[in-house]
Amino acid sequence: MPGIEEIRQFNKTVTLMGNEPHIASQRGEPLEDPKEPEQGLSEDLESLLDDVPDEPDESDDDGNDALSALLDDIGTDDDESADEEPPAEDDDDPFAAVDLGDDPDFEEDSDFDVDEPIDLDEEPETPGNDEDDLSFLEEDDLTRVDPPAPARDLEEVDDDEEDFDAEAVEGESPEPAAPPEDEDDFSFGFEEDVPFELEEEAGEEIEEAEPVDLDEGSDDLGEGLDDDISFDLPDEDELEELDVEGDLDLADEDGENDGSEEFDVGDFGDFGMEDEESSEPGGIAAADDEDDEIADVSEFSLGDFGQEFGVIEEDDGAYFANEEELNPASALPMEAPKTARQFSDADDEDAPIVLSDKDFSHVKQTLDSLPLNLRIATEEILSDEDKPPGEIRPLLRALIKGSTPKDIARIAGGIKGERIRLPSNYAVRRGVVFEEEKATFAYQFRHRILPLARTVALVALLIGVVTWLGVRFVYQPLYARYLYQQGLAEIDDSRYEVGNEFFSQARRLHERQVWFIRYANAFIGRRQYQLAREKFQELVDSPRYRHDREGLLRWASLESEVLGEFARAEALLQRYIRQHGPEYLGLRAEGDNYLRWADADPTPGRFTSAFETYTLMVQLFGPQDEILERLLWYHVRRGNPGPVLELVTLFEEVRTEAPITPTIYAEAAGFLIDRDQITYPRDMLRRILETDPESADAFYQFGRFFRRIGEPGNEFAALEDAITLLRREDLATARRRAMFIDTHTLLAEYHLREGRVLQAEDYYSQAVDLFTSENAAGLLRPDHRFGRMFAGFGDLFFDQTGEYGSAEQQYRLALAHRYGEGPQHDADTVRYRLGWIAFRDSRYREALDRFESIPGATRNPNLAFARANTHYFRNQFVTSQSYLQDVLSMLETERRSIGDDFNVNREPEHRELVQFRAMASNNLGVVMHRIFEQSGDRNHRADALVALTNSTQDATDLGRNPQTAVRSDATDLAFLNQRYVLFPDQDFDLRVYRSLPRDLSDRDFFPARL
Fold first, then answer.
1. Which H helix or E strand runs over 982?
2. Sequence-distant (≥ 6) Cβ neighbours of residue 126 within 8 angstroms
């Protein structure tokens, strides 16, 4: 008999062959392992085995002939074996020595009589294929399911079965004893009371189990009951032949039985079993009435295996799930009784439903191929006892036919009264066709290759899109930013071409407006204005930024403020207005451009255009503070003190909280300072510093303001702060650079006034160098402040160092840079000094041109004397005579204006006047004598002697000792000239005083040059 391990293996093999784990998981039911039986024999079994001999008969080869001896007396009614003689009784029956009649555990059973032959109507049909798991149950004598008879404990039963005496039980029909509470009886069904555990082993252990083949067993049963009926575990070769769908072949093996690995079903023939018929139509063991009497003999239990195949066993109230609950299709009859027709031949729709093996197999195959929701719905319909056969029959026909899931869903939905939805891949397939189609290349291509290719393509596309997005919006902007920054670094190192190359690379990766502006500003900071223009041009020509506001405005500002290209700036601003309309920023920039243009080219038309633009802004946007400030700026540039003062009063007394622009408001303060209107400038400049504490414009104008009011200490501090702040700026505009240069000039003038010539010369030199470099780059426009710088530098050479050549050069530059157009500029003095230097160098014609370019000679004796001397050396004696007479007349008038307070010894100015009159009288005497020499008129000779005598008298007065009034022994030039007139001498010639006053107001002639 099989041991515990073999039974465990057998249970595991059958469970896997029936695909029970999958079915249970689909139904949501747990798969419970059968319990192993308790050790030891029950009391009933011990009493039964008291009379069993210890040793079996030697003639019993396999220990299983007891059942054959017993069945010899019972006989068989099988149709195929009716003509055969019953098998002879075996004298060596192992059961002969067993006396079971006195066993109290056996009671007489009316349903079981060994004297009555077993009526087997016909030999069961041999199934045509192995798909029917329960083919051996098709016999009429095996149509009943009875409770299992008490069995011996597996532990106490030896491999060689003990012999039972069939004669001892002849004529007795013991009643089946009820199983005890412990149910220690051996049952092939392995009730829950006899548990055993399935060992969790690997799949390869299943292959070691031997399949159970019952086909031969069913045949032997039909031939005679003396043959052994046993279950053998399949060996490895037979296991490979089992159907993968879980079909179970219970046929007996041919040949020999080793007595240790098989279990003898014949043992169950010795015990009475209660009749238990299946109550449901189409059950596995449905039997005719005529077979009821012998059904108990051929009945046996499958235990937990029966549960998996839908067979219900009850023992003392124990309940096992039947196959209908696990697989409702199995509840249908596998084969109709011979008195009923097959399912496919039935005409009556309400006739009981009976399925053949083949139809049942088709139903199972079709159910397995259905989608889960449809299969569950179909199984619910088939298991519903309240459904009439006529209603279920169309559904069964569709299942047997193998219709498509769609058709089955339609039929099942009609029965259930609801719509059953199918997954898309089940909508148009039949189960069999679907299984066949799955093996084709087309199906594999559609459902495996194409989905895989589609998935790969989608993943590749997704990766490509993510990669493209990452490159486009992450990598490229970051790398472009790196390239832009590298280009700016190259520009700072003056490698402009390399910087532009980096810009071009970055622009191809990621173009952004801000980098155009930054590069343009970088070029402006490095004074590379043409490169800055190119960047602005690239920006406004870009299809993406062609309407960029900031680019056009910044470009126009570069052209207007820095480069002075006002016409180009106007064109850019007109383009801006065409694109964006009369917008506030565009109109303001246009008015500012016109105002700067008028500053460089002071024509009425430019100022008019600026004023009209600002007036239009007032009409469009109202009298805003910024627009009124622009009007103030216009009047400052136009030089209108009245409107300037009115607007300043408005801002200083009414709109005291209005925002101001430091540069414009500081320029207005400077305008008032230049005109000595110092009422508001201090408050205006303080207001600027409150708005911007680091306003270089405010400190610059403060320096000029303190100079005007005579505070040299504050003047120097303000100018030093201004120059420090201006050095921090990039000086992007021409006016800012001009302010920076003029700050140096103001500091030089301050040091010069303080007598620090070297410091003054240093600041002048810095100012001139700045101007030279900026002007060479074309960054400066003519400005009167540059003229004052050159004039002051020339004065330093002229007055302090005597470098007249350098002084002349600076004076020329001063006049060339609008010196004299600014307030308090003495351009006549510069021209006079240029004439003085030319006269000194005997460039009389040039000197005469400089002197004659100065108006007011009849009111300035210095200028008249300079002209007179210049004409004398050009041999224009009559003209020289006229200027000298004017000089003496002006000096005499000045002498009389002084009155009695005239004192040459006490007042230097009085002494200078007498000296000047002596020089003029001497020169007039020489000129008159030259005219006498030319004309021969003696009157001119007499006038010459009078003029020389006056000159000698003034020279004598100047030469007297102020304390003693004693004349000096020195001989003056007029006395010598007079002696030559009276006593001509060939070794002497008339001489004039050649020295000229150093400027138009200075009378310092000494030492006078002849």
1. helix 973-982
2. 135, 215, 218, 219
Beta-carbon neighbour count of residue 828 at 10 Å? 18
The predicted structure's pLDDT at residue 208: 41
Query: Nearest to residue 707, comparing CAs of 676, 663, 739, 680?
Result: 676
Spatial distance between the Cα atoms of 473 and 15, rounded to a whole number of angstroms: 60
Which has the closest alpha carbon to 152: 59, 38, 56? 38
Q: What is the pLDDT of residue 842?
A: 93
Give me the residues of the chain with pLDDT under 50, please: 51-321, 333-342, 344-345, 427-428
- The whole-angstrom separation of Cα 334 and Cα 424 is 33
Rounded to whole angstroms, the Cα distance separating 13 from 240 reads 12
pLDDT of residue 25: 72
Percentages (nearest 5) of helix, strand, coil residues in the chain: 60, 0, 40
CB 585 within 8 A of CB 549: yes
Phi, psi of 79 (to 5 degrees): -60, -45
- CB of 307 within 8 A of CB of 187? no
Predicted TM-score of the model (pTM)? 0.54
Write down the H helix ranges in 147-258: 203-207, 215-223, 236-240
Give SS3 for 1008.
coil
Nearest to 76 by CA among 68, 217, 147: 68
Instruction: Compute CA 901 distance to the chain's CA centroid, rounded to the nearest angstrom.
Output: 95
Is 165 within 8 Å of 99 (Cβ atoms)? yes
Distance in angstroms (rounded) separating the CA atoms of residues 709 and 617: 39
What are residue 454's phi and psi, to 5 degrees? -65, -45
What is the spatial distance between Cα 315 and Cα 181, in angstroms, rounded to a whole number?
A: 10
For the residues of 703-731, what is the DSSP string, one character each? HHHHHHHT-HHHHHHHHHHHHHHHHHS--
Residue 477: the pLDDT is: 94
CA–CA separation, 976 and 927 (whole Å): 15
For residue 100, CA distances in Å to 169, 174, 247, 556 come to 6, 9, 39, 129
Secondary element (H or E) of residue 434: helix 431-438
Cis peptide bond N-terminal to 855, omega within 30: no
Contact 409, 371 (CB under 8 A): no
233: left (phi over 0), alpha (psi -120 to 50) or beta: beta
Amino acid making up residue 517: I
Is the CB of residue 703 less than 8 Å from the CB of residue 722? yes
Helix (H, G, I), strand (E, B) or coil at 205: helix
Q: Give the pLDDT score at 351.
A: 77
Task: Report how far residue 952's alpha carbon sits from residue 958's, in angstroms, rounded to the nearest whole number.
Answer: 10
Task: Write out pLDDT tens, residues 388-433.
Answer: 888 888 898 899 988 888 889 999 988 988 888 887 666 445 556 6
Q: Is 347 exposed, middle or buried (0-12, 13-18, 19+ CB in 10 A)?
A: exposed
737, 731 Cβ separation under 8 angstroms: yes
590's tokens: 């246009």
The per-residue pLDDT for 256 is: 40
Return the pLDDT at 44.
54
What does 259-316 look like in DSSP terms, one character per residue? SSSEEEGGGGGGS--------STT-TT---GGGGGGTTTT----HHHHHHTT----BT
Burial of 417 (0-12, 13-18, 19+ CB in 10 A): exposed
Q: For residue 232, give the H/E element and its range.
A: strand 230-232
Q: Is 168 helix (H, G, I), strand (E, B) or coil?
A: helix
With contact defined as beta carbons under 8 Å apart, do 778 and 804 qualify?
no
Exposed/middle/buried for residue 466 (C-beta within 10 Å: 0-12, 13-18, 19+) = exposed
Tell me which DSSP letter residue 352 carries: P
SS3 858: coil
User: Which of 599, 607, 999 is CA-nearest to residue 821?
Assistant: 599
Packing angle, helices 712-728 and 696-709, rounded to 10: 160
